[in-house]
Amino acid sequence: MIRDITLGQYYSSDSIIHRLDARLKIVASVLFIVELFVVNNFWGFGLCALALAVVVKVSKVPFKFIMRGMKPILMILLFTFCLNMFMVPGHVIFRIGFLKLTSEGLYTAVFMAIRLILLIIGTSLLTFTTKPINLTDGIENLLTPLCKIGVPTHELAMMMSIALRFIPTLLEETDKIMKAQQARGADFETGNLIARAKALIPILVPLFVSAFRIAQELAMAMEARCYKGGKGRTRMHQLKLGKADYVSAVLMTAFFAVIICMRIFM
To answer: Between the CA of residue 109 and those of 75, 103, 105, what are the distances in Å?
Structure first.
């Protein structure tokens, strides 16, 4: 299960999507989220899924790698699906005790499940195709206007980047600790829910210790390199929009306009 979590990981590949400007990809991800909430029918979701499939194909990120990241949230999807299916009032199809399955609930459950799946896949592509350092620079650049009102944009971007960067590291550390505990006879698979929760205690304690150790090592490394925040800081690689970025921006704007029109006229 730990290895199935792909959140925050970068998939190295030489594709058009990987070479696009990080700022454009961040804006595209935000627009895609907005589009998913603007859509109010399955035709709109079909169009969003088609556009997402094209982007995945162009990005050269294996579909199996993307779907592997869906496994850890499968329980959340099932819970959301069942909650909508039985809790939305409407025309009753059949009853199971105090639970009522309604046609409106079934429609809502499928609708929300599709939205959630597309949302996760679409936003995951941002980290799959963007290096953490580029993501940091892109976020900071987009937030630059907030500096005028005293918002520490560089520090915010750095914290977000470090958080994403160390998700895979902490997952690897968790996997090592679990294997070490299993080698000493720990059992994480059997027993009821309470027993399994208690079995996680020997993992959480060393994991917290390891997380603080990694944070301390990172802080010492940044101090050793005379890091003093974003003031006066220069970059080796400057963010510049290329021809592919402008073409992508036009396509992105056109697609957003189509989704808005579908919302209004359908």
So the answer is: 14, 10, 6
CB neighbour list of residue 86: distance below 8 Å, 6 or more residues apart: 99, 100, 101, 105
Top mean pLDDT of 23-32, 84-93, 168-177 is at 23-32
Other C-beta atoms lying within 10 Å of the C-beta of residue 161: 21
Which spans in the chain are helix H? 16-19, 22-38, 42-59, 63-68, 74-87, 103-128, 132-142, 153-183, 193-199, 201-224, 243-265
- Please tell me the pTM assigned to this model: 0.77
What's the residue count for the chain? 266
Summary mean pLDDT of the chain: 83
Per-residue confidence (pLDDT) for residue 235, from 0 to 100:
67
How far is 187 from 190, CA to CA, in rounded Å?
A: 7
In three-state secondary structure terms, 225 is coil
Query: Using CA of residue 98, residue 99, residue 105, residue 107, what is the dihedral sign?
Result: negative
Q: What is the DSSP string of 34-49?
A: HHHHH--SHHHHHHHH
